[in-house]
Design goal:
Strand content: 15-25%
Distance between the termini: 84 Å
Strand order of the largest sheet: 5-4-3-6-7-9-8
Oligomer: single chain
Number of helices: 15
Bound molecules: S-adenosylmethionine
Structural class: alpha/beta
Length: about 350
């Protein structure tokens, strides 16, 4: 009898198990759909309601292909069809706005690079320096805000208002040190927001620093920032900064103590130290099966191969004490949690 054939049970189990894949595969294709809409300019074009003929003429593409693409974007809630025109749905217009604090294109690029890094993380040969320059840049851009957004300086102004000691110095004209400036989102946004302040920015990767320099010129703050390329532990300038900011989550374990010593020597007496705090490392095995647990486990794969390990808030506090800082506190801010300390 067909109904009793054992393969039927195997098939039934297979179809039940494959249900877990269905949303993943659909999401993967949805990302491809969004990627094509960004790369072709269709997403930007749809900020103005247009017919498929108008899209096709502007993009120099076949009208039927554009029609099918709009249809798929409509099916996914990205486009809204009104009479014979398509426009971006409000939520997607917000996400993909050119002035968005987080660039939509960078979000897509970043997701792709992270996925590639996770897949390659079992190879012993992968390090920060075996990444292509484009991947390194995408990683640096993907973890921060878009400094060209007109909202960025406002967000940074509001953020620093929650730390009155630093805010007053910035408003009067502070000199600050950014350790591991990356592509300079925080650094450059802060310089735009506080026009009397100046900075020194340290970055080990030359390709990243080149991009930051280009951005500084485009934002017209290049005459208020000095760039220093090299390992932060070897930074020679000392004792003149009102505050130091350390992007410690990209620093390998063996560089942490030396970098903190340099930071301590570089900040003025009564000056400030500030650094973002990550999620706490997992406390119990049960936490592993939560959203945070899953995110942390993937972070470990991505950054672990570069010698970077998550540091608990308590361990970070101890590192700061060993370096000589005091008045250590955690700050819950609109931009996440930060650790704050002062030079005695
Ligand atoms: C991703 S960035 C931080 C982002 C930055 N705060 C922003 O707003 O754009 C961190 C940087 O630290 C740099 N870095 C890592 N180890 C370093 C070291 N020992 N000395 C100097 N820079 C280092 C990495 O190359 C990376 O670009």
């Amino acid at each position: 009898m067909i109904q009793e054939h054992p393969v039927l049970k195997v098939l039934q189990n297979y179809f039940e198990a494959s249900a877990v894949l269905t949303p993943l595969l659909a999401g993967f294709q949805f990302l491809g759909l969004l990627r094509g809409a960004v790369d072709s300019g269709l997403l930007t074009a749809a900020r103005t309601p247009s017919t498929t003929q108008q899209f096709a003429a502007n993009m120099n593409t076949d009208i039927e292909r554009v029609g099918d693409y709009c249809h798929a974007l409509d099916a996914h809630g990205v486009f809204v069809k009104e009479n014979d025109t398509y426009r971006l749905a409000d939520m997607w217009a917000t996400l993909a706005a050119p002035e968005a604090v987080f660039s939509f294109e960078v979000i897509l690029d970043h997701a792709q690079v992270l996925s590639n890094l996770i897949a390659a993380s079992l190879k012993n040969t992968e390090t920060y320096w075996t990444l292509t320059s484009a991947e390194r840049l995408t990683l640096a851009k993907g973890v921060t805000t878009n400094p060209f957004s007109p909202h960025s300086p406002i967000v940074l102004d509001l953020f620093f208002q929650s730390i009155p000691g630093i805010y007053e110095r910035l408003a009067q004209g502070a000199q600050f040190l950014d350790i591991g400036c990356g592509v300079g989102s925080g650094l450059l946004g802060t310089l735009v927001a506080f026009p009397d302040s100046t900075a020194v920015a340290i970055e080990i990767a030359g390709d990243i620093l080149e991009e930051t320099r280009r951005r500084a010129i485009a934002l017209n703050v290049h005459d208020r920032v000095v760039f220093w390329q090299g390992d932060a532990r070897e930074f020679p300038d000392q004792s003149k900064f009102d505050f130091v900011h350390w992007a410690h989550t990209f620093f390998p374990v063996e560089s942490r103590a030396g970098t903190l010593k340099m930071a301590f020597d570089a900040v003025k007496p009564r000056g400030y130290f500030i650094a973002p705090l990550e999620n706490e490392p997992l406390a119990t095995d049960e936490d592993l099966h939560t959203e945070t647990g899953r995110a942390n486990s993937l972070q470990r794969l991505i950054y672990g191969s570069w010698g970077i390990r998550p540091v608990s808030h308590q361990d970070f506090q101890q590192e700061l004490e060993v370096a000589g800082f005091d008045e250590i506190q955690v700050l819950n801010s609109m931009l996440g949690n930060f650790i704050l300390a002062r030079h005695p």
